[in-house]
Amino acid sequence: MPKSQLELLVLYQDVQLMLHEAEEQENMGFQVEGRKNLENALKELADTIQTRYIRTYDRLKTRHTRPIAPVSNDVCLGCFAKQPTSYKARAWDDKQIITCEHCGRILYWIY
User: Fold this and answer.
1) How far apart are CA 111 and CA 91, in angstroms?
2) Rounded to the nearest 5°, which phi and psi values hold at 104?
3) How far apart (Å, rounded) are the C-alpha atoms in residues 3 and 59?
4) How far apart are CA 1 and CA 18, in angstroms?
5) Mean pLDDT, contiguous 10-residue spans, the chain (111 residues)
6) Hey, what domains does the chain have and what are their CATH numbers?
């Protein structure tokens, strides 16, 4: 089953964070295995995500360590700002990615 662009973006963010942690561990002198696998997975994900979403993600990455944030109880867990209730209904539409009005992060809902 194909994943939505938002799910792929969340995976993309997770792989980037794992690569960043691997780099930090290597800088401390530890040997890290599987880094090439993570780099290959990141390239594969980038190829499956629409270019406009990758550009948005990269732009947000300059401002936030985690440019994608979960929403719980209508609150962005990136900046803790309350989101409009209409966002929840729009989040079910897979054709649009929703951003936080306060911090600009890409949002996804957790239940």
Assistant:
1) 13
2) 85, 0
3) 23
4) 25
5) 81 95 92 91 95 94 94 94 84 77 93 72
6) 5-109 (1.10.287.1490)
The pLDDT score that the predictor gives to residue 3 is 75
Backbone angles phi, psi at 68, to 5 degrees: -115, 130
Residue 28 CA, distance from chain mean position: 26
pLDDT for res 20: 94
Distance CA 54, CA 70 (A): 18
Q: What is the pLDDT of residue 94?
A: 60
Q: In what order do the strands lie in the sheet with 75-76?
A: 75-76, 68-72, 106-109
Phi then psi dihedrals of residue 106, to 5 deg: -75, 135
Q: Give the global pTM.
A: 0.85
